[in-house]
C-alpha cells in the first residue's frame, strides 16, 4: 500500500511538471479531471467506462496472480461479444447469449494455454497473436453474415428486447465477478495454489502443483471472464456489435495496468480499475478546461506503473541479476 501511495504521488508530481511546462494551471487541470469523472455531467460516462475496464482488469488479474500474463484480452473480449450477439439474434435469449460469450472467450484463451503446454509457445506470444484472428473473424462476421442491411456501418442488427441488458446489469456482473474471484482467491485450494505459484513457481512444482493443468484452468477462467465482459457490453446500449468499438478504447491495456498496479489483488484491482477509468474519463474534461491534450492522462498512467515498479524494488532486483 505504501509503494502505491508513493507511486501515485510521484506520478502526480510528474504530471504537475508537465502541466506547468505547457503553461496550464495544474490545480485547475486536476480539478477538471475529478469533476469530469465524478461530476453530474461525467459520472454516467465514468460508470460506462468502469464496466469494461474493471471487468478486463479482473480477467487479466486471474492468471497474473500466478505470474502468467494474458495479453489476449482484446481477442477474447471481441470473440465473447460477437458470439453473444450471434446467439442473441438467433435465439432471443439473454442467458444463452451470455453463456455463449463466456464459452467462446474461455475456450479461446485455453487454446493459448494448450499451445504453451504442448508446443512450448510462451503465453505472452500465444495470447497476443491469437487476438488478431479473433478480431479479424469478428470483422468478417459483422460485414457479411451478420451485417445490418439497413446501415452502411460495419455493425450487426440490434438485439431483440428479450436479449438486451439494462446498463446496471453490467455493473452488477462486474461486482459479482470480482466477489467470486476474491472468495476463490482467499478461501479455496485453487486460490492457494495460484498464489503459491505466483510467489515461487519452482517451490510450487516441488509442492506437487501441476502447472500445465493450472495454466489451462487459469487461462480458461480469464478468457471466460473477458468473454463475459464483451457479451455484457455488446448486449447493453446500443444493443449491437460494432466493429472496432471494443478495441479502440484500449480496455485491455488499461485493465492490465490496473491489475499490475494492484498486483492482481482482487479488490485492489477493482479499485485501480476505477481509478484508471476515472482518470481516462476525466481527461476529456481536462482537455476542455485547460486545452491540455487528454493523452496526458495516459502519460500519468505509464509514469504511475514505472514509479510503482521502481519503488517496489522490481527494477533493482532485475538489475542485480544482470
UniProtKB/TrEMBL annotation:
GO MF annotation terms? transmembrane transporter activity
The listed locations are: Cell membrane
The coiled-coil segments of this chain are: none
InterPro entries from the xrefs? ABC_transp_permease
Instruction: Kindly list the residue ranges recorded as spanning the membrane.
Output: 47-66, 78-111, 123-144, 165-184, 218-239, 251-278, 298-315
Pfam families recorded: BPD_transp_2 (PF02653)
Mode of membrane association:
Multi-pass membrane protein
Chief site of localization: membrane
Q: Does the keyword Transmembrane helix apply?
A: yes
Output this protein's name.
ABC transporter permease
Species of origin: Kibdelosporangium phytohabitans
Amino acid at each position: 500500500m505504501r509503494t502505491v501511495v508513493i507511486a501515485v504521488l510521484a506520478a502526480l508530481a510528474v504530471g504537475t511538471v508537465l502541466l506547468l511546462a505547457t503553461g496550464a494551471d495544474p490545480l485547475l487541470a486536476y480539478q477538471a479531471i475529478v469533476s469530469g469523472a465524478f461530476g453530474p455531467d461525467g459520472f454516467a460516462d465514468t460508470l460506462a467506462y468502469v464496466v469494461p475496464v474493471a471487468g478486463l482488469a479482473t480477467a487479466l488479474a486471474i492468471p497474473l496472480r500466478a505470474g502468467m500474463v494474458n495479453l489476449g484480452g482484446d481477442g477474447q473480449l471481441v470473440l465473447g461479444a460477437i458470439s453473444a450477439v450471434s446467439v442473441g439474434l438467433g435465439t432471443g435469449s439473454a442467458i444463452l447469449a451470455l453463456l455463449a460469450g463466456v464459452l467462446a472467450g474461455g475456450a479461446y484463451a485455453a487454446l493459448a494455454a494448450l499451445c504453451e503446454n504442448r508446443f512450448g509457445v510462451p503465453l505472452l506470444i500465444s495470447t497476443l497473436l491469437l487476438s488478431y484472428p479473433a478480431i479479424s473473424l469478428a470483422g468478417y462476421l459483422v460485414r457479411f453474415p451478420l451485417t445490418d442491411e439497413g446501415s452502411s456501418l460495419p455493425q450487426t442488427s440490434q438485439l431483440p428486447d428479450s436479449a438486451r441488458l439494462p446498463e446496471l446489469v453490467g455493473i452488477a456482473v462486474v461486482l459479482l465477478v470480482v466477489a467470486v474471484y476474491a472468495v476463490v482467491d482467499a478461501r479455496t485450494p485453487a486460490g492457494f495454489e495460484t498464489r503459491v505459484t505466483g510467489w515461487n513457481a519452482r517451490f510450487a512444482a516441488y509442492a506437487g502443483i501441476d502447472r500445465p493443468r493450472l495454466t489451462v484452468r487459469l487461462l480458461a477462467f480469464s478468457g471466460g471472464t473477458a468473454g463475459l465482459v464483451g457479451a455484457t457490453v455488446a448486449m447493453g446500449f446500443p444493443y449491437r456489435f460494432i466493429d472496432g468499438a471494443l478495441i479502440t478504447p484500449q480496455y485491455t491495456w488499461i485493465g492490465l495496468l490496473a491489475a499490475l498496479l494492484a498486483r492482481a489483488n482482487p479488490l485492489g484491482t477493482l479499485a485501480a480499475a476505477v481509478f484508471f477509468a476515472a482518470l481516462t474519463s476525466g481527461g476529456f474534461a481536462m482537455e476542455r478546461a485547460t486545452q491540455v491534450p487528454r493523452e496526458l492522462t495516459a502519460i500519468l498512467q505509464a509514469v504511475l506503473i514505472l514509479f510503482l515498479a521502481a519503488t517496489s524494488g522490481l527494477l533493482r532486483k532485475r538489475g542485480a541479476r544482470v
